[in-house]
User: Fold YggT family protein from Rhodosorus marinus.
Amino acid sequence: MGLSFLGPPGVDRLGASSVTRRGIRAANSRPLAAVIPGDTVAEGFVVTGLVNFFGIYQNLIISRILLSWFPALQRQPILQPIYTVCDPFLNVFRGVIPPIFGLDLSPIIAITLLQAFQGASAALGATLPTDEES
Assistant:
């Protein structure tokens, strides 16, 4: 069973567009119809795994934010894995945006980026509609 090309109407297998929706000929447009071949176990495994990973990591970041309200808990050995996993990712944003009035905005940017990655990973296995579905 081979892979079928799931591109938009008017685009051949090599990505050369005959005529786009606006009537303009595009010489080298190569749409990404599906990054992972559709309707396979691998697709479901990879996409679901990525979505779950980003969701779990986002929850770890939120727990790290809540733990920052209790500075005495930073010395607890049972909580060290949360700090070890979350702080390197948050430090990337802390170096870019300094605290404003003592308020650290890096978790807001980190969570927004994680949500964008989660949404993008959910779209990895999406296929474009074919002519029959339009």
In short: The two ends are 25 Å apart (CA to CA).
